[in-house]
Input
Amino acid sequence: MAMEYSEKVMEHFAHPHNVGVIEDANGIGEVGNAKCGDIMRMYLKINEDEIIEDVKFQTFGCASAIATSSIATDMIKGKPVSEALTLTNQAVVEALDGLPAVKVHCSVLAEQAVKAAVADYYKNKGIPCDDCLCEHCPAGGCGREEHQ
Amino acid sequence: MFVYADNAATTAMSKAAVDAMLPAMHELYGNPSSLHQKGREANLALMAARRTVAECLGAKPEEIYFTGCGTESDNWAITEGARLGAAAGKKHIISDAIEHHAVLHTLAKLEKEGFEVTYLPVHENGIVRLEELAAAIRPDTCLVTIMYSNNEIGTIQPVREIGALCREKGILFHCDAVQAVGHMPVDVVKDNIDMLALSGHKFHAPKGVGALYCRKGIKLRNFIEGGAQERGKRGGTEAIPSILAMAAAMKESCDHLEENMAKVTAMRDKLIQGLSAIPYSRCNGDPDHKAPGIVSFCFEGIEGESLLLRLDLAGICASSGSACTSGSLDPSHVLLALGMPHEIAHGSLRLSLCEYNTMEEVDYILQVVPQVVKELRQMSPVWLHMLEHMPDPYQSAQ
Output
């Protein structure tokens, strides 16, 4: 059965935004695992006012993993860290005009990657961050039962 | 440039098939079971098609049953082979780990019904070992089902030797030859095959038609009740246009088998050679026992679906694992059976060629794939982690 991706997904997959590495990033998060077939790594450059000045990502995964990473970086770029922490996977799915049911876990991964990168930023500063936890995000996995 | 390199999924119809099909749709509308002239006309055409298919396989016309697809043929042969065994008190079946789901899922159904199935390993090269088959045979083994050639990695099994061993032991041998017929010589007598499944659309016939060969003397039970068609074993009015088109396509493929094999093999070998130059790539399946048109590679550090869709954007139709696998999230059972780790199996690409492809298309593929692999690697954290333990092959190449 062929997978139907929205035009938005294909646009972000074909020309992803914010791909790459930030050498002087002050928050880096990596989630997923290669066994599941998806890994996202997110780099944040957060300024003194706690605004995300720059964000970049690297993703190993399918078209929807790349598209969710791309749009998630768009959604948090230039925003305060507090606002980035409110990003949900549903918002990512909506921004992409939907994802096939079997690919929704990619949007969870995108939310998780943002939170992991912010958590890393606060950890570097020695500040606890309860909002950095993703309650519905699986720990270290891809959200698929057989790989837990 | 547009390149269709997914011929193991399905092929374009040949002119011969279309030329056989169209008049059949216009003129041969009679029901072959009818006694009047339109019926007789259709029945004569059906008989001729059955002879053609039989001749291409080295079989007798009465040993050919037309079906709806290769999957149906596999279901029928395996289910009935198992039931014949059960009637004689034998409920053990031998197969292997890289069969198509048409076979594996039928076997899973039989396991639920109380049959026991041994799945032979295929090892790193994707080929079953005869001594392991011999060792797996038990007094209650009733059926061996092993494919002719694999749909994902193209490996060709030692079918003739498997058949000889089964014949010696008095065990039925079914062979899923869906990927082989029309692409390599298949002779049911020389290859010692008792039952064989084939599918028309893999060799330029339309979708929705296949055949089952069943050696004379094997008492198949009816698969579909309700009519005298296919000697009463598969009721339902015959799909005359599709059957005639399949016979025409099969005859054309068999008549040009050697030249097609030479042409396709040359393109395959050039592809394998060119793709092998990509760093951290591996070609899957035994290089010396491989179908002419199938090329399977894994590229470390990238994921197959992204690769596939990037190639699609560049005009190249390919596949990652089998088409059935691309709808699920798990990497292909075939690649995992070769002992490949999940993370590498995720980065698989299958290019399948036929005689309609050209060397120019192969050159285009070889121009695009290395570039796309490189781009995907540059955005892959897995590749980044690999670079922590190895020199960057793209840097040193410059």
